[in-house]
Sequence to fold (358 residues):
Amino acid sequence: MLNCYKFRLYPNAKQERILFRWIGCQRLIYNAKVQEDRYFRRFAQRMVGTAGKPVPVDQQYSQFITERRPLLRDVPSQILRNGAVKFHRAYQRFLKKLGGRPKFKKKSGRQAVWLSRESFEFIPQIDDQTGNIVSYQLSLDTKRFPVGITAYLAHRSHSVPSSIHIAVQGGRWWLSLAAEDTALTTPGKNLEAAVEQIAEDLRHLSADQLAKPTQGGDRGVAKPLTTSDGKVFDIGPVLKTRIKKSRQRHKKWQQRASRRKQGSKNQKQAYRKAARYQQYEKMSGTSTPIKRITNWLPTMRSLGMSSRTCVSTISPNDRRPKKRCQRPVSSQSSESQSRAQARNPIVGWGTGCLVYHL
Fold:
């Protein structure tokens, strides 16, 4: 079962400059493909020689590497290729009516770069006594462009993914990935087989036994969490006061940034501070209700249910906020991770529902 992870990343000053260059070059290729598509749609189809021909939608990017753009030769070719692939995937979603037409990506706001398997490596750290993998080290080295080991905080165990996303917002770096979660067990080879197996395991229970431990949760804006039995979980008054102050400071720094010189370092610094205050509400606004959900789980396990995981769709853009850390570490030990999973066995948020262990 694929599970989504989001970890804090701690690159040094040299690594930050390299990552910013990768982000800019991948954004340049994406915007160049968008501009190329607009050219063919607006001008090329109106010309006599190309009238009636379909608009080309491909993943070619070599035509953009010219003498006018020498910076594109200073990054790995996989970075440029992934920019063209992202455009092609976005255009395919548009053709399937799953989204809008690809647009230009801005330099402001959240910036991210997509790295495939050739551009990174997770080096396993093995315990000498047990021989098990206790943590990983993220290496962004390539043959021509070595970056080195980048520190990140892995607050829970994960496996090696096929691709990763490195993003920066408000001066903070994040590592996002999707990998197989070895702690979660999904019976069967696919979703249908898993549902059949779970139904077979619960078939011996009566309707009252099934209804007693069942709890549904719904996320909202005014009310962070409402359960199916009518209980409403809200954040505390202290956190509400802090969120209100962060909103005021966010608005203040936005006003200060708009009054400063366009494109100056002072304006970028003001926008960075405004983004940090905006992130505070996002990261702490729903942390308290989630901690209270764990009170339901002992009731579910008291009925002798098997240690399975409820099958549901987890939205990668709607995850549970993670706790802050004071110092960068690679990961926790296997024993501390198992104790943390026992205290908080919630997997994550779904679309209007909760996903948790039975």
In short: The chain has nine helices and twelve strands.
